[in-house]
Design brief:
The protein is 41% helix and 15% strand. With 453 residues, the protein is of the alpha/beta class. Helix 9 packs parallel to helix 12 and helix 13 crosses helix 14.
Length: 453
């Protein structure tokens, strides 16, 4: 299969992970733009460079496309970009003309602009450090109460009019662009078009927009960064039968942080979206073990603890993969301790505890599906699979759940990571030599640059 992917941005989970998963199947020929063309935390994508790169792209079977990269320069620029609707519309029509010459199936995602419930402006407009929480509250009230009663939220009076107007204008522009994409979908331009709800609460302008797009016939899913991987899963022909099981089955109806559906619904949505079939354990190809939370999902970095896994882990007696979602962004140390004690490489299809529940599930399912189908075709690259798993354990468990809690700024963590490297080397049966980088010069993510033996 010849596959082209234009990622959301240049983060390791959006760029490196795509490349590493594609390598698990030697029959997949991946075309991906140079990393320096993509956007970052403070840098927009080189849109004209991407146009030129796409023009030279040879014939491919499928194109997985982040529309935010093309329209705004990336996911974060989509919230900051000052370009007018007409400027962006002209740009994406030019891009559409290029795509129409490729005769490939196009699997695309566009974000519904998020509303962060905090006063951090690292990924938002400058005024978010003073008015972010107030804008969130205004949006929440407007949806839940004011729109039904014909009243205005009192929070509005606490936000300077020019700031609120700017925010609402940016939202309106992005929503009009999404409506345009939906028009293209109805004309048959996309094989699949997904609108992503990123970091969402039960109420807000983003939820209202999602409901409107659904009424218009659009497909909406909670998540963001993992969706290109889920689209890769969808683009690859073949199905996998998967049975989800939960470490806390009585709590599977609870809602994860940054999401608006239960963890059980999130699991079902991600499996269906990836083209997998949900079955009984007896009929399944792979059992998906979900380490879910009891009362609420924890968040280690935000000092929001939750009850860790305290039972006995009984791994399935057949092929399995593990979604560790007890915390948002970071492994459950008790659970990983049990897993390492009982780990069985034979029949292992992956581990993930990357960020939100949707992030974890979408990336995990993609890796497992690619591996399973590659094994069926005789095109499986075991070393590539081990590399993906090594990175997930060292990032999601070693760094996010442990090392990150011991440091206050980006620094050299080589020696601190060594004991974790030794444990992962043992269970995966490999020797590794790693270096660690902070690609966006912040603690939120690291890049694992590795060499396997």
């Amino acid at each position: 299969m010849k596959l082209c992917v234009i990622p959301i941005d240049n983060r390791p989970v959006c760029y490196n992970l795509v490349k590493d998963i594609a390598k698990i199947d030697t029959s997949v020929d991946l075309f991906i733009p140079p990393r320096n063309m993509l956007g970052g935390l403070t840098k927009d994508a080189d849109i004209m460079g991407l146009y030129s790169w796409l023009c030279k792209l040879p014939e491919v079977d499928a194109i997985v496309l982040s529309l935010d990269t093309i329209a705004y320069g990336g996911l974060i620029p989509s919230r900051r970009c000052a370009d007018s609707f007409n400027d962006i519309m002209s740009r994406i029509y030019d891009f559409k003309e290029i795509l129409e010459t490729k005769n490939a199936k196009i699997y695309a995602v566009s974000s519904i602009m998020r509303i962060s419930n905090n006063n951090y402006n690292e990924e938002e407009k400058e005024y978010w450090d003073k008015y972010g929480k107030l804008i969130f509250e205004y949006s929440y009230d407007k949806h839940k109460f004011a729109s039904n009663l014909g009243l205005e939220s009192p929070v509005k009076n606490l936000i300077p009019p020019h700031i609120l107007n700017d925010y609402k204008a940016t939202r309106s522009r992005n929503f009009k662009i999404n409506q345009l994409y939906l028009k293209w979908q109805k004309e048959g331009f996309f094989e699949t078009l997904i609108f992503s709800k990123d970091d969402c609460a039960p109420y807000g302008f983003n939820v209202m927009e999602a409901e409107h797009l659904i009424r218009m016939g659009g497909n909406v899913i909670t998540g963001a960064d993992e969706i290109p991987l889920s689209l890769i899963s969808k683009a690859i022909s073949g199905s996998v039968k998967i049975c989800p099981v939960y470490t806390e089955p009585e709590s599977k109806g609870l809602i994860s942080n940054y999401e608006d559906v239960s963890i059980e619904k999130c699991v079902e949505n991600q499996l269906n979206f990836a083209g997998c079939k949900i079955t009984s354990k007896e009929d399944s190809d792979i059992v998906l073990v979900v380490n879910n939370f009891k009362d609420h999902q924890g968040e280690i970095v935000m000092k929001n603890p939750t009850e860790q896994f305290s039972g006995e882990l009984n791994l399935p007696d057949k092929s399995y993969m593990i979604a560790d979602v007890r915390n948002a962004n970071g492994a459950d140390n008790n659970f990983v301790g049990e897993l390492l004690d009982k780990f069985r490489y034979d029949g292992f299809y992956g581990y993930s505890a990357w960020n939100t529940s949707a992030n974890t599930l979408g990336s995990l399912i993609c890796c497992a599906k690619v591996k399973f189908l590659a094994e069926q075709k005789g095109t499986y690259n075991e070393k590539a699979f081990k590399k993906v798993q090594m990175t997930r354990f060292l990032d999601d468990w070693a760094y996010q759940a442990n090392i990150r809690q011991e440091i206050t700024e980006p620094c050299n963590i080589q020696l601190m990571m060594k004991p974790y490297e030794e444990q992962i080397s043992e269970i995966l049966g490999l020797q590794i030599r790693n270096e660690y980088f902070y690609p966006w010069d912040r603690l939120f993510e690291i890049e694992v640059s590795d060499e396997l033996f």
